[in-house]
Amino acid sequence: MVHPARLPLAGYPQVWELTNEDTIETVVADYREQIAASNEIMGSFDLDAPCARSDKVNENLRWVAVHMIEETARHAGHADIIRKTITALVGADTSHGRNPPNVA
User: Fold this and answer.
1) CB under 8 Å to 4, separation ≥6 — which residues?
2) Which residues does residue 2 pair with via DSSP β-bridges, in sequence order?
3) DSSP calls for 13-49
4) Phi-psi category of residue 91: left, alpha or beta, with phi > 0 → left and psi -120 to 50 → alpha
5) Which terminus in the chain has less CB density within 10 A, N or C?
6) CA-CA distances (angstroms) from residue 102 to 24, 80, 81, 90, 92?
């Protein structure tokens, strides 16, 4: 996978590109590595510290943290829409914790 964190920042927009070697396990492992790195960074600064990005000089680390939560939620919502499209499940899950027939 070409990972955005390993690309130059000037190269916006940065994208994720999966390769044939990528699996669910490797992508999830990489995602968890990024979570750990983000937690380490967040834990080493005061939340009121100014944002290091030159285009966000009026924001602080607290703003960055909330923005990342919003982005994660937004993309999780996109994934849920795709899942519902594939499985034809819409609305409340009435399976009471069980998968509907033919849905893995």
Assistant:
1) 14, 15, 16
2) 17
3) SP--B--TT--HHHHHHHHHHHHHHHHHHHHTS-TTS
4) left
5) C
6) 21, 18, 18, 15, 18
